[in-house]
Amino acid sequence: MTVCDDHLIHFNGLSHPSLHFPSPRNHLSLVVSPLFLLSSASQYQKARPPKHHLKSRLSQPPVLTQPFEVMTSYTAFYRDDIILPCEASGNPPPTFRWVKDGRTFGSERTGSGTLEVSEDEALELYQGTFRCYASNTLGTAMTHKVHINVEAQPVLLKQQKLRREAYVGESMVLTCNPPPSSAPPQIHWMDKKLVHIRQSDRVMVGLNGNLYFANLLKSDSREDYFCNSHYIEARTILPDTAIALTVLICFHSTSCFNRMQPAKHLLFFLFLSPTPKVEWKKKDGKLDETGGHPENHNRWLYFDSVDQRDDGEYECRASNVHGSSVHSFTVTVEAAPYWVKELQNLRYAPGETVRLDCLAEGIPTPNITWSINGQPLSAVDEDTRRRVSGGVLRLTDVLLSDTAVYQCEATNDHGSILLNAYLHVVELPPQILSSDGVVYRITEGGTIKMSCETFGSPRPHVKWEGEDWAPLLSDPRVSLLTNGTLELSDVGPGDSGMYTCLIKNTNISINAHLEVFNKTRIVTGPQNVRALRGGKALLDCYFRKDPRLPRYQIIWRKDGQKLQESSPDDKYTIFANGTLKVTDVQSKDNAAYSCEVITELDQVTAIGSITVVARPDPPLDVTLSDVKDDTLTLSWIPGRSHNSPITGNMWEALKRVPADFNHLQLSLHPFCTYAFRVVAVNQLGPSEPSQPTPLHSTPPAVPHNNPTGVRSESSDSGTLAITWDEMPRRSHNGQDFQYKVLWRKAGGKTERWNHGYAKSPPFSVNNTGTYVPFEIKVQAVNALGEGPAPEAEIGHSGEDVPEEFPSDVAVRVMNRTVRVRWNEAQNVRGLLLGYKVLLSLHVQVRHLLEGKEDDGILEKTTAEVTGLQLFSRYTVSVTAFNSKGESPASPAVHFSTPEGVPGPPASLLFESPTENSMLLYWTPPLQTNGILLGYMVQYQQDSPVRMEIIGDPSVTHLMLDSLDPRSYYTFQVIARTAAGDGQPITRRNATLFDGVPPTNITVMPDKTSFNLSWVPGERERNHGFHIDFLKKTGGQWEESEIVNTSQGFYSLTGLQPGTEYHLVVMHGNSTQWESASWTLGPGPSEVSGGFATQGWLIGLISAIVLLILILIILCLVKRRKGGKYAVKDKEDKEVDSEARPMKDETFGEYSDTDEKRSESQPSLCGDSKLGSDDSLAEYGDSVDIQFNEDGSFIGQYSGRAPAPAGHESSGPASPDNTAPPPPIAPSMSSILNQPS
After folding, report:
1. Which CATH number fits domain 999-1079: 1.10.260.40, 3.30.420.480, 2.60.40.10, 3.30.930.10?
2. What PROSITE patterns does this protein's entry cite (predicted)?
């Protein structure tokens, strides 16, 4: 299933054909962070009074301390779903009121404003939009709006079980229609055991809840597809009606393709077989540069956190071997409102000008509205001192009466955000809030900030002075911040001392003390160390610090990662002086190492490295000395070892010498040119080769050996072709190298040797006769002489095709077998490889090779050909052959095979249009073996056999009426020729399904009985069963009378009152149903006695166990004795009329080896089938078998549809197909296709 539609492009829960995603700022996020209307931790921008003033002397405006979460709307199903928190602090304590749809809702509250539904209130009263207001004498704060949808709990109406059927390879959609709700449910497709339906790229649940099959498999058939709707808010799970899906196997390809109409949902799901491969791409950019990534078998493109980069066009392409399909999507990223500059709590003195900034952005641009104490500005009296310009509210010449809570709300299509800010207009005396006598410490060269936070209305003005009471702002290193803080940069030891902060025009001041310390410095830092692999490395870290800073810490890092110090024997050790030791240095220790010294006020870092030693440099000055004809001495100077001792030297491709050697004596080949290079080796590996020496040549010599592999490879008649393996050039040992080739006829020791010369193989000798044996040998020769004497080999001159064909060819026909005889071929003119027997039927020819070579004598001049077609005319001829070809064919001998009975019809299918009729379809035999005269159809219920004769061989179907729908019938179809009736094709079928005991039984207890009821199965055969019951207190198993499934009710009587019974219904060896239940009334008194006192029962069980052990031992002994025996008749045995048929119309190669088949001897054990492959799997083309949970069969025997001749099974009569067992259940297709 390929999902390219807009419903499965999953963008964090939103999906539309044109997708718009609200997202703030440059990093857009689909989920907006919770907004708080007014935090109790907000800071006043102007100034803050001392804490004791805030608590005892100042009034406080309402500050919302627990606003409800940012949820513009939600759905309520129960009373406890509605809890709207509204809590606020203030002095005096605030009161609370709620407004619903613009009207006051309920009475004013004190202490807490949280809104909940009481037990006596109707839930429907809370349908609407709510907002909470918290008020005291200083103003009113308000929350944002929230909309409540009140819905009843979803309910699913009861429906009948749905049944769907389709063919293998077709697409399928199982729909899920949960009750509608403003809080959509989560959909889970499960079976009756509450196991999820497994999803894949072929089977998938869509966002609409439907279950999609791209192409059906037979394994998709099941009776229990359940769509479960999980309403999380309603705390409800609704299981939909079960859907039964039956997947049929299509035997008539034409009718199946007519059913497979083009998928109507191609826009959303591509229904194709094989399952398509899905690829995503961004048409106007790169997909990996966006936040999207494929999920759910590549069917969804999922965005975890949408931002502006995700805006653009996307394309989904689905493809398989049949082609591809493309679907495009446009994603437009938008954003809910977010704050650029938030409204702050302010305090001003009367007469000042106030500017309230409330700047918000979003896509589309949000609209900003202002309110005072919860009332929109449009509802407040106009005031010329008040101006509004977008997100800016300006108040000039403020008055004490302007003290209020101001609200700013930004709204666009994707939501709204709200802020409350308190404007306090008041006159307060100046004060310094920072502590007096604070000591500031810093190292030289740093920057220090000394705090002097003030409070008052109007805002106090501060100044700083040094110990000499001189102004400080004249120093360019000094800055005075707006909050009164003094910032001093690049401090030095001379800046130490006392500093004073005072408020102008008052005697209020505080003092601050500054101490400047010496900076920490690393005197000797880590070096760039080269270490031998497996050795150790030391990195230094010597430092100096201010003695007034006693506490410090040394940290070593490797490539930025902190090293953990270990014991002295482990990898890393840090000594008291700061030195780092690294042991067992390996390649992974190649890194940059840093030493950090950290004090209370500063830290300093130095960097070094460890480099593991490399391979050595190549040797230098490679020279040759003591040069002779076949020896010399090679010398060299070792190169640099890079702190890793050289362990050896190699001269290229020849020999390795110890490291303390710098020369080597070498033996050389004659007539060769040499150049030498030397490689140094240490623990890390070999160096690069040295520069090569000047070329050195050795003098020539006679060859030291002769070529190998001397042989004849003659292909032409009258020619002897001699060849051999060429010698390598280094073995030529001189100039004018060539080969001396010698030959003479074999067996003539007195004949002289002929010879010739050749530069390379082969060497040809003409006029030698046809297939004449020769002695041959090859010797190496150069300008200085010949090599050693060679050994002689035997070869032959070339062959020619045989001149004469085998004579006196005769045949003997035995049904499907013909035995061919001939005389031995003469004048073969080469090595006789065998004979070819050529049989032809029209234009088809079978070549049979016969012949076995043993010391040049051919043992057999006969061949037996089996598997011929009956009622056919053949010709046969024989040829002899060698490696050059075949002799002329012997004169053709004509013969014919007799007419025989036909094979069984190729297939037999059934349809059951009514309960009393059956329509039979069959296909003609694959092997007619004569002229078909018609068919005979036989069928029987028990007895007698009823028969229908069809005299027209073109008729291949028959309708049978007046059948008993409660019984099985055995059907046989037999083809007929003049030779007689052929083998039948046999099938067993019925118009009804076989019945099984009920699996769902309702038990109604009475005093001495149980009333059991069940619903009989539709279109199932009446089935008799027993109800086994056991009294749990000292009872034994008992069995009821036979009960029929069609009854639907049975009363189990004769029980004891007040007793618990265990009830079981068995089907074969499986438990079909079981339950435990009590009868009504008082229980019986306990009866003494038990199983242990029943001696006769124990003896009986012991005897049965002993008998079973004896039978098992006999079975094992018989299994060990089972043997194999040959079943093929010997060649001289008469072949009967049931000879093995040919597997196809063309002839195969004749084999002299006897075919040997084996099968095990019969076993004493009935269930043992040693050596037998017979199983239901052999009838895979005609049997459709399933199993119930108890192991019983549910299936059918359905014949195959007609197929082209030569490609379908020949039925039970075929040697490759044994007769199938009787059917287990009626035809599934006949039941499903029967009209209602």
Report:
1. 2.60.40.10
2. FN3, IG_LIKE
Alpha helices, DSSP H only, in 233-305?
A: 253-259
Q: Can you give the pLDDT at residue 1123?
A: 42
Question: For 620-698, which CATH class?
Answer: mainly beta
Type of residue numbered 831: L
Tell me which long-range contacts 42-46 makes (C-beta under 8 A, separation of at least 24): 42/344, 42/345, 43/344, 43/345, 44/344, 44/345, 44/346, 44/347, 44/424, 45/344, 45/345, 45/346, 45/347, 46/346, 46/347, 46/348, 46/457, 46/459
Tell me the average pLDDT of the chain. Answer: 78
Going from the C-alpha of 744 to that of each of 311, 711, 774, 923, 930, the distances in angstroms are 92, 14, 6, 72, 65
Give 996-1009 pLDDT, tens digit per residue. 899 899 999 998 99
Q: d(Cα 792, Cα 781) in Å, to the nearest integer? A: 17
Distance CA 582, CA 567 (A): 12
Q: Which of 1217, 654, 1236 is nearest to 904 (CA)?
A: 1217
Query: Which is nearest to 909 in space by CA: 973, 982, 977?
Result: 973
User: If we measure between CA atoms, which residue out of 814, 812, 816 comes closest to residue 903?
Assistant: 816
- Please give the C-alpha separations between residue 212 and each of 10, 173, 190, in angstroms, as whole numbers: 17, 5, 14
Q: Predicted confidence band at 100 (pLDDT cuts at 50, 70, 90)?
A: very high
pLDDT band at residue 655, thresholds of 50, 70 and 90?
low
Inter-residue contact 419 to 38 (CB < 8 Å): yes
Query: Per DSSP, what are the bridge partners of residue 763?
Result: 722
- What's the pLDDT score for residue 949? 92
- Report yes or no: 187 and 225 within 8 Å, Cβ to Cβ: no
- State residue 1102 phi and psi, 5-degree precision: -65, -40
Q: How confident is the model at residue 1120 (pLDDT cuts 50, 70, 90)?
A: low
List the one residue out of 916, 952, 964, 955 whose CA is nearest residue 1234.
916
CATH architecture group of domain 521-613 = Sandwich (2.60)
Task: Copy the structure tokens of residue 558.
Answer: 């490797």
Identify which of 221, 220, 203 has the alpha carbon closest to the alpha carbon of residue 212: 203
CATH assignment, 430-517: 2.60.40.10
Whole-angstrom distance, CA of residue 827 vs CA of residue 802: 6
Q: Which CATH number fits domain 810-849+860-897: 3.40.30.10, 2.60.40.10, 1.10.10.10, 3.30.470.10?
A: 2.60.40.10
**Separation between Cα atoms, residue 305 and residue 28, nearest integer Å:** 7
CA distance 1013 to 19: 57
For 369-418, how does the pLDDT look when each residue is reduced to its tens digit (9 = 90+)? 999 998 898 888 888 888 988 889 999 998 888 889 999 999 998 888 99
**Rounded Cα gap, residues 480 and 755, in angstroms:** 117
The first and second tokens of residue 903, run together, are 């094979």
* Length of the chain measured in residues: 1236
Quote the CA–CA distance of 714 and 712 in Å, as a whole number.
6
**pLDDT-based confidence at 851, cuts 50/70/90?**
very low
Cα–Cα dist 404/61, whole Å: 8
- Whether the pLDDT of residue 1158 is over 60: the answer is no
DSSP 1003-1067: EEE-SS-EEEE-PPPTTB---EE--EEEETTT---EE---EETTT-EEEE-SPPTT-EEEEEEEE
Q: What percent of the chain has pLDDT over 70?
A: 79
Superfamily name and number for 339-426: Immunoglobulins (2.60.40.10)
Query: In 3D, which of 855, 880, 871, 948 has the Cα closest to residue 903?
Result: 871
CB 139, CB 373: distance < 8 Å: yes
- What sign for the dihedral angle of Cα 1226, 1228, 1230, 1234? positive
Residues 6+ apart with CB under 8 A from 1130: 1154
